[in-house]
Design a protein that fits this description.
It is a single chain. By secondary structure, the protein is of the alpha+beta class. It has helices at about 35-40, 95-100, 105-110, 110-115, 115-140, 180-190, 225-245, 260-265, 290-300, 315-330, 355-365, 380-400, 480-490, 495-505, 520-530, 560-565, and strands spanning about 1-10, 15-20, 25-30, 50-60, 75-85, 145, 160-165, 170-175, 195-200, 215-220, 255, 280, 300-310, 335-340, 345, 370-375, 410-415, 420-425, 430, 460-465, 465-475, 515-520. The chain has an eight-stranded mixed β-sheet, with helices on both faces. Strands 1-2-3-5-4 form a five-stranded mixed beta barrel. Helix 8 crosses helix 12 (about 380-400) and helix 10 packs antiparallel against helix 12 (about 380-400). The protein binds aspartic acid (ASP). Aspartic acid binds near residues 180, 472 and 517.
């Protein structure tokens, strides 16, 4: 049984490559054996579904196909069942040709796209990875528990999807951004170890490679500390990599404090496969005559620089692009020095003293063909600007084959010791760096009132090659501390606390165990395992950048009756034509 992959007529003998999930088998319809059958077979079209009966025979030696798993045999057909004749597909069911088809067309006919061997392999890989994870977690005593998709609206973090409640007019559920609160309740319930392949929903603008619904491997454990989580999760990841790719990952994974990650790589998810680390050049310019640098240092800011080795040949267009990128991170411009023909070419070098130049040379080891970039701003901004330029420059160097970044190298890294809080300028208050249930590092908890920004959180991220694969934390389980965080630190009004989190605070008063957990972006993991760039390629039925499903054509308007039942009035929005 299967699909007609291709059909060839060799002097009246019909050869059909019959395809199913496992691969291809050749069926032969010989008119000297059964002329009517051969004639029927000749009428078939690619992608039709048929069943063939016959005898399995060895192929004649000269027609053996070594490239095919079934290349030594063929079926001499004696009967043919035609289950469905296919129309001509809108694009070839072929890996190389299919990849060149516009993605919208592939998504409209996703059931055909998924027939391509590459997509079938990805689905198989996703299954293997999820089974590896499940087996590991089952062995480690985790219970798989499902939590509700109709949750309560908690409008913080990403925007939520709302679901109107017909039975409670004017009221709404929200689709969960993650099962965070439920999994913590499972710990209070005594489950001790929980996991779920959880569907999460975030109504974000789908820039970059995001999906409005995506899958997490979500976990929570009682009576654990950070070390327990690291060890268990390294085991989980190793098992997934071993069973999916046959790769043995070295453990334990290295760890890097958040401050070092920012300082050295300018980002909290560093790609450590290549160096080009950031250098703090503030001390060199303490007495500088260059106003921009001087003003930054006097205001308590940082001067960060890095040497993009060998990139002095960048084009004006590339330089303009880098400048735009720097500006989008809050820079006023992007200062640089190129080393060309033994000279420093730069709009700012004329402001530097000989000592400053010598010290820069020493700090950045500038050689012929190099280009150095600078950022001058507060510490976090300087790091982020130059960190982003470092990544952009690496991509340009890679394109020129001047930098090797090996895609089969897996640099896992725990980023740890994040600050518990970040100050939200716009709101004039602290918000949680991870989420408001994250526990402070015990030694720092006494600083919550006096010096909140110095408090580290028990939060950890697992990073792979510059991609954040997962994040989690040890949680607050003491009701007084959780209330203090909500009320005194995050400055949430009492009635809002009661309304949103009252049940949690109550639950914590009935025997809450210490607990912590983590969630992995499963789609991203599979994309990395499969070596594909977009998570859309590892999701059976993904949405477009505009959040549409092109196959089913959703979202769509609904009937007036449906809206009336839900007590909803919709303003008609004119869409420009
Ligand atoms: N729920 C968190 C998230 O989605 C992960 C965790 O803290 O376990 O990022």
């Amino acid at each position: 049984m299967g699909w007609v992959e291709s059909l060839r007529d060799h002097g009246g003998i019909i050869f059909i490559d019959l395809r199913d999930r496992e691969g291809l088998t050749q069926a032969v319809f010989n008119p000297t054996v059964d002329p009517l059958l051969a004639e029927q077979a000749a009428q078939l079209k690619p992608e039709s579904v048929i069943g063939v009966s016959g005898t399995v025979e060895l192929r004649p030696a000269e027609t053996v196909n070594k490239k095919l798993g079934t290349g030594e045999i063929e079926i001499h057909a004696t009967a043919l069942d035609i289950h469905n004749i296919s129309e001509t597909p809108p694009f070839p069911i072929d890996d190389a040709l299919g990849d060149r088809v516009h993605e919208d067309l592939r998504l409209t006919y996703r059931y055909l796209d998924l027939r391509r061997p590459k997509m079938r392999r990805i689905m198989q890989l996703r299954h293997t990875a999820s089974q590896a994870a499940r087996n590991y977690l089952n062995d480690a005593g985790f219970l798989e528990v499902e939590t509700p998709s109709l949750f309560k609206s908690t409008p913080e973090g990403a925007r939520e999807y709302l679901v109107p409640s017909r039975l409670n007019p004017g009221e709404f559920y929200a689709l969960p951004q993650s099962p965070q609160q439920f999994k913590q309740m499972l710990m209070v319930a005594g489950v001790e170890r929980y996991y779920q392949f959880a569907r999460c929903f975030r109504d974000e603008d789908l820039r970059a490679d995001r999906q409005p619904e995506f899958t997490q491997i979500d976990l929570e454990m009682s009576f654990v500390d950070r070390e327990d989580v690291y060890a268990l999760m390294e085991g989980l990841i190793s098992r997934i990599w071993k069973e999916s790719l046959g790769v043995d990952l070295p453990t334990p994974f290295p760890r890097m404090p958040y401050h070092d990650a920012m300082n050295r790589y300018g980002v909290d998810k560093p790609d450590t496969r290549f160096e080009m680390e950031l250098v703090d050049v503030g001390t060199i310019f303490q007495e500088t005559g260059f106003k921009v640098f001087k003003a930054t240092l006097e205001a308590g800011g940082s001067l960060k620089a890095f040497n993009a080795k060998g990139l002095a040949d960048l084009t004006q267009g590339e330089l303009n692009h880098l400048t735009e990128v720097a500006k989008s991170f809050g820079a006023k411009g992007l200062a640089f020095i190129k080393v060309e023909n033994g000279e420093w070419k730069s709009p700012i070098v004329k402001f530097f003293s000989e000592e400053e130049k010598a010290a820069l040379q020493e700090a950045l080891r500038m050689e012929e063909g190099d280009i150095v970039f600078f950022a001058a701003a507060d510490w976090a901004k300087s790091c982020s600007i130059i960190g982003r330029i470092r990544l952009e420059a690496a991509a340009l160097l890679k394109k020129r084959e001047k930098l090797k970044i090996d895609d089969s190298q897996f640099n896992f890294l725990w980023v740890v010791e994040f600050p518990l809080l970040v100050y939200e300028e716009a709101e004039g208050r602290y918000v949680a760096a991870h989420h408001p249930f994250t526990a402070p590092v015990p030694e720092d908890a006494h600083l919550l009132d006096s010096d909140p920004k110095a408090v580290r959180g028990q939060h950890y991220d697992l990073v792979l090659n510059g991609v954040e694969l997962s994040g989690g934390s040890i949680r607050v389980h003491q009701p007084e501390l959780q209330l203090k965080l909500f009320r005194d630190v995050f400055d949430i009004p009492e009635d809002v606390i009661e309304d949103r989190f009252g049940y949690m605070l109550k639950a914590f008063r009935y025997g809450a165990p210490p607990h912590g957990g983590i969630a992995f972006g499963f789609d991203r993991i599979v994309a990395i395992l499969a070596g594909v760039k977009s998570i859309r390629d590892v999701i059976a039925f993904p949405k477009t950048q505009k959040g549409q499903c092109l196959m089913t054509d959703s979202p769509t308007p609904v009937t007036a009756k449906q809206l009336r039942d839900l007590h909803i009035d919709v303003e008609t929005i004119e869409t420009p034509t």
